[in-house]
């Protein structure tokens, strides 16, 4: 009985090897990891419209706060520490004149233009008239891209929130 079980086991192994050999797929790429790292870059070169436009960085928060005019006020975003690295960061949003700002919490959402990197909300707590602070983290993109967008929304004195989008590059270090 033991010999029969051993013979059946060997037969099953041989059948699995033959079946695997007949249904094996050829290698698609030699190094899938490296191919994946460069996929997004090559994809944009051939068909940028397929994943959306790439927004050129409009500011460098490592040098100075980024600012935009919105509804008669200026919304500024500062990020610390500099340079802006892919790690925990402190975000400060300031509205001038402070009288244009409303009371309450704000929010900031981090995203990577043209590539979904998950949800990265940052709660902004009021820190004086026209000023909000919060902490968040930039995550490393597997493709090596470093372009980020910060969508800011803070209360205004006029009712409708003040909204601004700041695009920037994270440092490589």
Q: What series of H and E elements makes up the topology?
A: HHEEEEEEEE
Under CATH, the homologous superfamily of the largest domain reads: Macroglobulin (MG2) domain
Largest sheet: 8 strands, antiparallel
Got a strand count?
8
Number of domains: 2
CATH class of the largest domain: Mainly Beta
Enter the CATH topology name of the largest domain: Immunoglobulin-like
CATH architecture verdict of the largest domain: Sandwich
Measured distance between first and last alpha carbons = 66 Å
Structural class: alpha+beta
Helix content: 10-25%
Write down the Rg. 26 Å
Low-confidence stretches: 47-51
Taken from the alpha-carbon principal axes, the silhouette is elongated
Proportion of residues in β-strands = 35-45%
In which order are the strands of the major sheet placed?
Answer: 1-2-3-6-5-4-7-8
Tally of alpha and pi helices? 2
Task: Report mean pLDDT, rounded to a whole number.
Answer: 83
Walkthrough of the structure:
- This protein has two helices and eight strands, in the order ααββββββββ.
- It is of the alpha+beta class and 173 residues long.
- The chain folds into two domains: 49 residues, no CATH class; 104 residues, Macroglobulin (MG2) domain (Immunoglobulin-like), CATH 2.60.40.
- The radius of gyration is 26 Å and the shape is elongated.
- The relative contact order is 0.18.
